[in-house]
Amino acid sequence: MRITILSENYTPFNLTLRGEHGFSALIEKDDMQLLYDTGRFGICVDNARTLGRDLTRTKKILLSHGHIDHTGGLEKALVAIGHPVDIVGHPRIFEKKHITGQQYVDGFGRKDVFIGIPFERQYLEKMHKARFDLRDGFYEVADRVWLTGEIPITNDVEKIPASLLVEVNDLFVPDDFADDNSLLLDTDKGLVVVFGCAHRGIVNILTYVKKMFNKNIRAIIGGTHLHDTTRGQLEYVKGYLKELIKEDGVELFAPAHCTGIHTIMALSEEFKDITKPAFCGTVFEF
Length: 286
What we know:
Blueprint: E1 2-7, E2 24-29, E3 32-36, H1 43-51, E4 60-62, H2 68-71, H3 74-81, E5 86-89, E6 96-100, E7 112-114, H4 121-128, E8 131-134, E9 139-142, E10 145-147, E11 164-168, E12 171-174, E13 183-187, E14 190-195, H5 202-213, E15 217-223, H6 231-248, E16 252-256, H7 261-270, E17 283-285
Parallel strand pairs: 3-4, 4-5, 5-8, 14-15, 15-16
Antiparallel strand pairs: 1-2, 1-17, 2-3, 6-7, 6-11, 9-10, 10-13, 11-12, 13-14
């Protein structure tokens, strides 16, 4: 099984690959190929071409949640794939998601920016023959490949930032990220967990994964949304990971994207023996 990071915030010192604030990973297993998220601007397509990955072999697109930095490349990816595919995600991925804050004030005094999926579902279905398969439970999308579905919140430490909102009946309310879907790969030596953004918290997600599978976690890859975490929250996450690594023998920790470069550096120092970068073009073999 092979995972290739096609879109991420950072690139190695390589002028042939491009980075963006987004995430996309290509999953290959035997003759099966899946695309997990599509990044912000479809750079996943350009990087796939540079890396020699044939996107026309893709059977399904899996969406971690409905933010633009994970879904903005949908149309470009569908064009590159060139044939109808299932797009798998949570029923609430098309909610009108926003971010608010003083840094987003525009010329009209608005303090929010739309950051949801930039395409209407009907447009993608009509123009690109996309087939949406939207489910809210634990779901096997392919042989030994799963999406978590909605993650139960089991601790009161991991908090969703108050700046992340969803529009409901013309009102902005806190986004609870019921649509937050992580990817699980069931390998012979344990579970590989891939986060898109882990908006519901990596401790909540990993706790749920352990409950559902009762297997050791072998690797943890992807965005953890710890870039704006508090010191207390970060220490809580580090404490949980220490115990998990000790108990399960985790072999790989590759934080990326919304983890933030400073938090990536802090986690790399804490877990230096197993931490590796997950830049654009990085390949993980299991």
